[in-house]
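ingest -> fold -> write
write: protein_1
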Amino acid sequence: MAAASHTLTYAGPGHFIPMARFLIRQQEKLVQRLGEHNIPGLRWLVEGFNYYDKERVKEVGPDRAAAEWIVRCGGSVKFDKMSDMFSDYNALVKRCAELDPRISGDQVRVTNIEAIDASVTGYGCRHFEGLNAILDVRFVRCKNLHDFGLKYMSDAVGSKLKYLEIDSCPRVTEDGLDHLKNCTGLKSLLIHNLPRVYGKPKIYQELRQALPKCEIHYPDYEKDQ
């Protein structure tokens, strides 16, 4: 019997790759571009990546649902029982498909989230609900993240989160940073390059007062002192 043929796609002189892999790469590039730019005409697509699916949460649990969300948006995630940092959606789903969420030994919990140039939005941050093992979150150059996202995150995991970085997220304002006062579990907070934050001395002092056990780094404020 002849071997099954695979559709190939041209990828430059002398280079052909399987169609499925090509489509996955194109999807990954699209997600990255959506994360790097604020494109009003494609807002519906960005929010689609961030949709909070209650049925999916019931099916696989909040941790796996959150992991799928962050990787779908172009970020990375780490579980407590796995050494790998997942950034490929298909690899994540394939690995988690081996787990049975009904078995306690197969339950994995999200500990680290890295959203770098990711298309996460404020509404997508509803996925923080139920992440009882989360320790470290980084939002870097997330152009679609807004204040509501910080509220969702702070309300859901503020007492559990230990390390938080918010860097170059242009839609975040001082109102968003004000929600971080609820992150009472923080040991380290880095906020940097947030152009829509005004009154930096006031927000810095208020955060220090609200989070006395947290080491706060705010280079934009500190350089003016």
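write: protein_2
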Amino acid sequence: VKVKIPFGNKYLDAIFSVPEKKSTYGVILTHGAGGDMHFPHLVSLAAYLASHGVLCLRFTCKGLNITYRAKAFKAVVEYLKLSDDYKLSGVFLAARSMGSRAAASVIRHLSTQEEDDFVQGLICLSYPLHRPKLQSKLRDEDLLFIRCPVLFVSGSADEMCEKQLLEGVASKMKAPRKIHWIDKANHGMAVKGRTTEDVMEEINTEVFAWIRENIELEDK
């Protein structure tokens, strides 16, 4: 279902992947610095989640300014929260690369508003912890303030997220967190000798299993 989401004086293009049965939880999904919501990995994940009963809303927001991207993400969260068509108990914010930095920023901001528990967790696909070859400057400031559960899915050969550095940041986080390493994958989740479909199947099943675990905890 295609929708236009109001954002300031313009609109963001978005698509709902709707499960057959009514969903109580949803995922908001967006892309990295390049590309848009039609990026194959996002399309694959959205279809997988919807086929397993989780509503997925993916959107496009161009722009390389992280503050701008975070504002757009926040507008999408508000839109879904107030939606009459899809009444959800909560959502997970999921995104690739730069989009996951924007999502982390939104969650950090929302967590200062104590009464808001609509956002249930954060899913970072290829979180860009540092620029390539520039490991001294870590983009970890938002992660350390987040309190809701966080899942990182990263390639063990990601040139923007060195394995030991992410594990070090994770050990300092207050939030419940899990890292799933895709063996030998780079920042674009490409692995020599494996098809994209094969890699995506691993990512999709991992993301869904983690969401289900966290929903079960929440519902107990």
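write: annotation protein_2
The beta strands are 2-7, 10-17, 25-30, 55-59, 90-96, 119-125, 150-155, 177-182.
The mean pLDDT is 93.
pipeline exit 0
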